[in-house]
Specification:
By secondary structure, the chain is mainly α. Helices cover 74% and strands 0% of the residues.
């Protein structure tokens, strides 16, 4: 199924973006409330 692959790729990209944002945000932006 192609949907699984797309979902997996999107999840991985989101995780990387979240991690990157956390690392960057720690020094620049005030910490936002995490869910």
């Amino acid at each position: 199924m192609k949907t699984l692959r797309v979902l997996r790729t999107a999840a991985a990209a989101l995780a990387v973006l979240a991690l990157y944002g956390l690392v960057l945000g720690r020094g620049r932006w005030p910490q936002w409330p995490l869910p």
